[in-house]
Amino acid sequence: MEAVSYCGRRDLIREWRHSMRIHPLSLLAVLLVAACAASLPHSADARPSDASVAAEASADATRFASWLRHGAPDPDDPQAARDALRLVDALAEEAYARGLDRAPHTRIALAQIENQIARTLLKQDVQRAIAIDDDAVEAQYRATRDRYGLPRRVRLRNLFLAFPPDGDDSGEDAARDAVWQRMRTLRDRARDGADFAALAEAHSDSTTWVRGGLMGNVRPGQLSPDLDRLIATMTPGAVSEILRSDDGLTLLYCESVLPAVVRTEAEKRDYARELLRTQAFKTAWRDLNAALQQQIAPTYHPAPTAADDDAATFVENGGEAWTRAEIAALLADRSDAPLPQTLGADHQRQLEAFLAGRAGVRRLAARELTDDPAYAEGWPWQRRKQLATAATAARVAARMVPLTDDDLRRFIAAQPDAFMEPPRVRLAVLQLPGVDQAPASQRTLWALRQRIASGALRFEDAARSTSLHPSAARGGVLAPMTRRAVSSRLGIDVTQAVARLEVGEISRAIDDGSALWLIQLRAIEPARPMSFDEARPRAEQRLGQERTDALRTEVLDAFWAQLTAAQDDAREDNDPTEDEP
Q1: How would you label 136-167 residue by residue, b for 16+ Cβ within 10 Å and e otherwise?
Q2: What is the pTM of this model?
Q3: Which of 111, 119, 391, 421 is buried most deeply by CB count within 10 Å?
């Protein structure tokens, strides 16, 4: 029995893990709501009649079936689900007894859960209301039937060598002859089995070099008619002949071929119907959300005279009032953060989204959708589970000891690799327009790169005179950045290019889809250990979460032991044979 009971606790712990991700210091706020609860009282009633026992058993069976459908973390394990239900019921009742259902964070969490349930049911309601008639399907099919299916596609890589910008096209041009000779050598290596992606990454002047020359799955019409005819004859592993253009020489490599997908007329009509249904749903769902937004007419209350009067109403809308503490809980990432004096744009959008969700709950009732089992049964179970989470959090908070500097220092010292400042790169960038202007920009970058490499032009001067990036006035020089910051600010292609550069080296042209870049790697700042002040926030979060997780398990184990002992006592008290001689 104990092993099975553990399964129930394990399932709840797994399900509550994310809902219990509370900043360890903010657990102190829970202590202000409730102290650690004593074990639940047990009253031994007189032995019930057979009829009442049968009725109670039937009601219990119905309730348990509902729990399996809408609440149980593991409905496939009935015993574990039954144990989890006992825990949820007891903890939820404790939450009610201690007033945790009225705590700001619990009220907001419950409202958000109800909002999400309402959103799901409203989506289903919108989908049910969509009717696509056969005439519309036929019209859509006739207008777009040539678009259904897929043509033969070839996964291509390319390797491009640019001609010197100042040369001519005569065979006597030594520089161009050298480009031809290089390309012949690379073609022969590729045909002899060398890794084409590695060759392209090492030698190509195309902006695809950073992806090993990968062009993607190319379909007819994406390239020139001459190339379309060439690609149509290529098989996996084939390397093309050298292709010449005004700008340079190209090799193509066929990595794989995806055959054409031909759909039947019935499949095309089914696809047309689904397309119309998707379009209709998007329009109807957008209109419904706009209608819910129009129902937001909040009345804001002025701040109370007492600065700490968190129980004062902050906003009213749709017949609901929300206190300052509740809105603080909605907007803050820490449960003990105060409500901002002025709501910024992000907070205002967050509040409006919440109020629109409440409008969705009201619409659910107006549409008489609250009888749907997902709401009628699912919402009460989700409520009880959230209340059980609140009761568990309060018990954890009552046992949580504040972290000291010594605790944090020992934690940091025990895992130094987790508290390192990552390497940072110092870059200079040069940005030119892409998309329609990409070919001209690429030629400009080739010329600039050659002049910089020859020493005729400094990178900083080239950036000042040609770059579109805001750093142009500083010669393209950026502040030191981590790899993650480079990816966030400059994109994944630039990040991959930087990873291949040596200090002092300048990249080849990089096309991120909207602009073309040259990147100079000026320096690399090595990783270093964080100072204690730098490491403190991370250490507080990680160590605090470790202790919270451990305490949560201990709390549920202890609570389960109390619950089981109380049940055993009840059985003994109600056993009529115990008093027999």
Answers
A1: ebeebbeeeeeebeeeebbbbbbbbbbbbeee
A2: 0.74
A3: 391
